[in-house]
Amino acid sequence: MNYHYPIDDTWTKEEIIYVVQFFSLIEQAYERKVERKVIIAAYRKFKQVVPSKSEEKKLFATFKQGSGYSSFHVLKYVKITEDHFIKMK
């Protein structure tokens, strides 16, 4: 499926790529599986673009509304597991 990713018009092309890659990995964690270390690396790049926790929550909510996928739950699982691959149910 194709989802609408939340984008800010003030971001550079590189920043947009980081954000889209992060949300794409969240999508993959639900639909297939993704390496834990890849999600961690993408989240670090995402945080360079969106350092504010409140803006992060807003973007997460927008993405969840459009896709049904929770970025928060994926990241929470990434923090508590030692599994090499993440597959959400």
TrEMBL record:
<dbReference type="InterPro" id="IPR007920">
    <property type="entry name" value="UPF0223"/>
</dbReference>
<dbReference type="InterPro" id="IPR023324">
    <property type="entry name" value="BH2638-like_sf"/>
</dbReference>
<protein>
    <submittedName>
        <fullName>UPF0223 family protein</fullName>
    </submittedName>
</protein>
<dbReference type="Pfam" id="PF05256">
    <property type="entry name" value="UPF0223"/>
</dbReference>
